[in-house]
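User: I want to check something. If I give you two sequences, will you return the structure for each one separately, not as a complex?

Assistant: Yes, each is folded on its own. Here is the first sequence with its structure:
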Amino acid sequence: MKRYLIPAVFCFASAVIGANWTALTAAPSKLSTEDFTEIQRLLYTNHTGYDFAHRDNGKMWADTFLDNAVLDNPPSHLVGRKAIQEYSTTPLRNDPEYKLRHWTTTFHVTPHPEGAILSAFYIAVTNSGPKREMVIGATGRYESLVVKTKDGWRIKHHVVISEGA
């Protein structure tokens, strides 16, 4: 009996350990086409909300974030939806004529255990100079963790990586 019990216990333990290891190392679940589209729409809403923050005091932009979200746009590091919303209205308070428009390209979504990582390149056009012409102000990319909530996809951690003007 002992000679069967020890191998049986060993096999059972190996199966349990193997199952747990597989669960821990498994690739994140796949995203549906609908998820991809909703995440893309989230970024576009985020940009529109920021670009037109004067219309609603930055509410549309802030609504794309979780309440405890993080925004890293060096040198800024903001935590919480309230701080993030205020960030969108600061340029307008400092200069009521200020305009910024985002153009986003090369949109990509990768599954992540918490949701997804969205990345995209951006070109920001701003009005500057004595004639307030719209000119390319900055280029860069986003790398952001987004999560699915009962209200749809939201940004948990938004990272802006400037790559020059």
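And separately, the second sequence with its own structure:
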Amino acid sequence: QCHKNKYSYKDSLVQQYVDDYRALFPLYIEALNEKNTEKLQNLSVSAQELGERSTIVSERLTDPKEAQKFSDEMTEMAKCFVNEVTDISNK
């Protein structure tokens, strides 16, 4: 459920950002489970690149409904990710 797309977006750059962000989660969780520091370092670079793209994406979210969908989806992904990381940490 955490890794499935919830919404689709009119703007292809916004959609690509959400897709890329969502695709990063299972890779990161896998690397955490494996305790693979090299993978984690590589994924942190990808995460940083996504962070740099967030400004461009936020500027393109001029439609209030699209912006709300984006906010809701990103919040949901973040909560899900925190829950998965917490589960791994508690093992």
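Because they were folded independently, the notes below concern the second chain alone. The chain has a mean pLDDT of 90. The CA atoms of residues 32 and 83 lie 13 Å apart.
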